[in-house]
């Protein structure tokens, strides 16, 4: 049942005012006619090219109202399903074993148990009570706008994906709080859903049930987080006055995300005259700009490597595995039963239940074969972001910041960003990186004292399993922090520069090699470790440009050159290792693959030599051969000729180990394997990458450049094999933006790779995908003159009175 949330005084006062006006009207005479009551909500929605809404209102309530209405116009089915998910009702409508659209989605039943657990009524009510009055008004307005659009269209008038669907309903403020909480948990407990659902007391029937299967490493394995940070990560670059042609700030935003589902970005421009004027993109359904710019500064976000959770090893009472010992005192776990309605094949509903076991140190979890719940120990997962109710307030403060100092102060004070770095620059040419997010307060001394020996290696990669038998090993409380158990903002990494700061989902350490950020606890940021390919290629290109060694004139960067940093689609690891691969080609003809097949490498080696070492649309099959080689190099023990050197982290490690004939032959076998795998995938020898990787939209296939993160490609695009042939993009570059400040203010260009709408009938379903394919960066209309003079300009005014 949806919780009944506390009602803020403002709506009650307005309602009382409306009653009073009606009473006065009854007593009035013709000489003193009463004025009609003003609408409770009012907004203008002005649309420009590619369906971008510019929403203007006089107050927060009206602004939220316009956002909710506009987003529903473009993505009502997506939002309606998001509401179902956050309420734990997917099994009720779609069945227990079905999954969402992203490849990481767990079965619906596990998802429902989890969301009902984290979004229990008391937690949701508490989140609402902690919202400042402007945020309540914004959310109330958003709900009113969404509901008005739904009422105007009716279920029968909705897009095919949700037309007349039983799961579409009006939205509530509680729904928005649940969605916000689910976004907050994306960097922590959202990765543990199957492990939380797998936990059951030893000796029970539930404990004997088969554990959910997970492909690849589990989230207690450092390799899991390394892959996550690289996959669903981002690139962010901010250039200062010492690095730009005009001496003012410039920012590249390149968040990577799923192309389908909840985490799609949405472009918008928000204005409250004299109070707010900000443009960019938000995570779907969020009523503010997440990544964007105003007249004074621009910023972007990248997923950070800090851990936003802690794990705790509980010592159990030998007599009862649901009781544990802390400081010599026996305590009982709290059992929380979650009931979920499940649709059967015949359409009937049955109720299924699951018991979670909770403690002040989090919810009991189980990683089969790794962290088991037996009669001696159990393990809990504590997600710090489930106490973070400040996300809306945080982004709103960023939206209205008038300087980098104000931006920094707001982030330090609120500490509401859940799991993302901030990379920013202002009009004066200053840059800033802040790795300030919600992180459990585990100083290095506590890590050393409280992590059992078995888990020391994982702790070095920021996965902390703490001794739960003593309260001294719980996360610390800092009175300067806005919630218990997390670090205060001012104690977390940041760097200000006049040249550049950047991040590509490595730790804060190498934000700028000239000023490494060191000395932080492992859970926050790790020093002196090998950097990913995107970090290395990004820094290398910036350094070459500023040193004037990249073959271009000057030593400063233009907006087009910054865009080229992304869309050059260079394959970094090819630049590091292709010479050795080609060396193995010399003299190679008939080579036996691992499966015994003999492969003639003549054509493959010719294609590798002809390949331009990019993931552009015209890249030949040499790209496929090289990536096939790269996928095997670790197993073949051919990496690296020059090992990682913390004193030279941008240029190391590099090169292949071809120091004897045996290793050369091993590389030839690897190449033969790659040739077979590439051909088996359906890539024809005369086809280009743009003929292989394409986004299918409305019966048309649009070529998509870019490639997977593993190969050190800055412009990340991951794709999956399509049954009908070729590859379909699934995740990667999404909202791509550059902002350059000059004497006329912010000059922004951006493209949303998958477009504004998920509705195939919308004109904005594929229009920007075409732009992305062509590497076209439309200029964003920001000023009133630019907006109203846009050839696609359309305006509607909407309003709603007190109900």
How would you portray this structure in words?
- The protein contains 23 helices and 31 strands.
- Strand 29 and strand 30 form a beta hairpin.
- Helix 11 runs antiparallel to helix 12 (404-414).
- The longest helix has 27 residues, at 60-86.
- The two termini are 23 Å apart.
- The relative contact order is 0.12.
- The model is unreliable at 1-34 (pLDDT under 50).
Structural topology:
Blueprint: H1 9-27, E1 41-47, E2 53-56, H2 60-86, H3 90-94, H4 108-118, H5 121-129, H6 133-153, H7 173-184, H8 193-197, H9 205-208, H10 222-231, E3 234-239, E4 250-258, E5 265-272, E6 276-283, E7 291-293, E8 297-303, E9 309-317, E10 320-326, E11 329-332, E12 334-343, E13 349-359, E14 362-365, E15 377-383, H11 391-400, H12 404-414, E16 420-426, E17 431-434, H13 444-450, H14 456-459, E18 465-467, E19 494-497, E20 500-503, H15 533-547, H16 559-567, H17 572-585, E21 590-592, E22 598-600, H18 602-610, H19 622-633, E23 639-642, E24 654-656, H20 661-680, H21 689-692, E25 694-697, E26 700-703, E27 717-721, E28 727-733, E29 735-742, E30 745-752, H22 767-773, H23 784-788, E31 794-800
Parallel strand pairs: 2-5, 9-18
Antiparallel strand pairs: 1-2, 1-31, 3-4, 3-20, 4-28, 4-29, 5-6, 6-7, 7-8, 8-16, 9-10, 9-15, 10-11, 12-13, 13-14, 14-15, 16-17, 17-19, 21-22, 23-24, 25-26, 27-28, 29-30
Helix pairs in contact: 2-6, 5-7, 11-12, 17-20, 18-19, 19-20
């Amino acid at each position: 049942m949806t919780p009944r949330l506390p009602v803020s005084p403002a709506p009650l006062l307005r309602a009382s005012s409306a009653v009073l006006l009606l009473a006065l009207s009854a007593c009035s005479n013709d000489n003193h006619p009463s004025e009609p009551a003003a609408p409770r909500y009012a907004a203008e929605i002005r649309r420009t090219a590619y369906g971008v809404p510019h929403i203007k209102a006089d107050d927060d309530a009206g602004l939220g109202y316009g956002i909710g209405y506009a987003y529903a116009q473009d993505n009502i089915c997506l939002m309606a399903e998001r509401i179902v998910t956050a309420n734990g009702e997917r099994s009720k409508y779609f069945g227990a074993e079905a999954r969402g659209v992203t490849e990481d989605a767990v079965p619906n039943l596990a998802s429902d148990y989890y969301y009902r657990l984290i979004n229990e009524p008391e937690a949701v009510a508490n989140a609402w009570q902690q919202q400042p009055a402007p945020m309540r008004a914004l959310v109330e307005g958003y709900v009113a706008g969404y509901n008005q659009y739904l009422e105007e269209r009716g279920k029968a008038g909705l897009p095919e994906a949700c037309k007349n669907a039983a799961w579409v309903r009006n939205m509530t403020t509680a729904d928005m709080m649940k969605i916000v909480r689910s976004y907050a948990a994306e960097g922590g407990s959202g990765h543990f859903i199957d492990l939380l659902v797998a936990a059951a007391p030893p000796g029970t029937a539930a404990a004997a049930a088969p554990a959910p299967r997970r492909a690849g490493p589990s989230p207690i394995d450092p390799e899991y987080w390394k892959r996550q940070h690289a996959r669903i990560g981002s690139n962010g670059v901010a250039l200062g006055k010492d690095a730009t042609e005009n001496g003012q700030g410039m920012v590249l935003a390149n968040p990577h995300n799923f192309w389908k589902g909840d985490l799609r970005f949405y472009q918008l421009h928000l204005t409250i005259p004299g109070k707010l004027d900000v443009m960019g993109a938000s995570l779907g359904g969020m009523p503010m700009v997440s990544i964007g710019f105003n007249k004074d500064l621009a910023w972007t976000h990248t997923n950070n490597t800090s851990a936003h959770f802690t794990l705790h090893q509980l010592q159990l009472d030998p007599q009862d595995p649901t009781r544990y010992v802390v400081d010599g005192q026996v305590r009982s776990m709290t059992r929380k039963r979650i009931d979920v309605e499940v649709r059967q094949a015949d359409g009937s509903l049955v109720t299924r239940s699951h018991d979670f076991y909770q403690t002040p140190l989090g919810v009991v979890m189980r990683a089969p074969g790794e962290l088991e719940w037996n009669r001696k120990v159990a393990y809990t997962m504590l997600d710090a972001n489930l106490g973070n109710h400040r996300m809306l307030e945080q982004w709103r403060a960023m939206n209205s910041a008038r300087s980098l100092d104000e931006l920094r102060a707001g982030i330090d004070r609120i500490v509401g960003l859940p799991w993302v770095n901030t990379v920013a620059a202002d009009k004066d040419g200053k840059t800033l990186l802040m790795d300030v997010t919600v992180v459990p307060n585990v100083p290095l001394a506590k890590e050393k004292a409280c992590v059992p020996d078995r888990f020391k290696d994982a702790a070095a990669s920021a996965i902390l399993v703490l001794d739960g038998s003593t309260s001294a090993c719980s996360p610390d409380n800092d009175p300067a922090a806005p919630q218990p158990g997390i670090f205060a903002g001012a104690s977390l990494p940041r760097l200000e520069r006049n040249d550049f700061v950047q991040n590509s989902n490595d730790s804060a350490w190498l934000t700028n090699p000239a000023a490494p950020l060191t000395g932080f606890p492992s859970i926050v940021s790790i020093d002196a470790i090998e950097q990913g390919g995107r970090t290395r290629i990004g820094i290398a290109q910036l350094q070459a440009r500023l040193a004037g060694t990249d073959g271009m004139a000057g030593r400063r960067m233009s907006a087009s050159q910054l865009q080229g940093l992304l869309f050059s689609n260079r394959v970094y690891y090819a630049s590091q290792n292709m010479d050795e691969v080609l060396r193995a080609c010399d003299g190679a003809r008939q080579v036996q693959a691992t499966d015994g097949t003999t492969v003639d490498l003549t054509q493959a080696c010719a294609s590798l030599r002809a390949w331009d070492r990019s993931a552009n649309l015209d890249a030949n099959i040499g790209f496929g051969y090289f990536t096939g080689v790269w996928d095997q190099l670790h197993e073949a023990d051919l990496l690296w000729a020059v090992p990682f050197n913390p004193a030279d982290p941008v240029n190391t490690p590099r090169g292949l180990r071809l120091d004897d004939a045996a290793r050369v032959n091993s590389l030839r076998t690897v190449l033969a394997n790659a040739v077979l795998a590439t051909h088996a995938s359906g890539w024809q020898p005369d086809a280009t990458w743009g003929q292989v990787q394409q986004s299918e939209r409305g019966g048309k296939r649009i070529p998509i450049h870019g490639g997977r993160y593993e190969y050190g490609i800055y412009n990340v695009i991951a794709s999956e094999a399509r049954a009908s042939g070729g590859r379909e993009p699934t995740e990667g570059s999404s909202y791509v933006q550059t902002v350059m400040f000059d004497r006329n203010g912010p000059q922004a260009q951006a493209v949303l790779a998958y477009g504004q709408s998920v509705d195939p009938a919308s004109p904005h379903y594929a229009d920007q995908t075409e732009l992305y394919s062509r590497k076209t960066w439309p200029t964003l209309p920001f000023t009133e003159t630019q907006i109203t003079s846009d050839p696609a300009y359309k305006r509607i005014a909407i309003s709603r009175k007190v109900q």
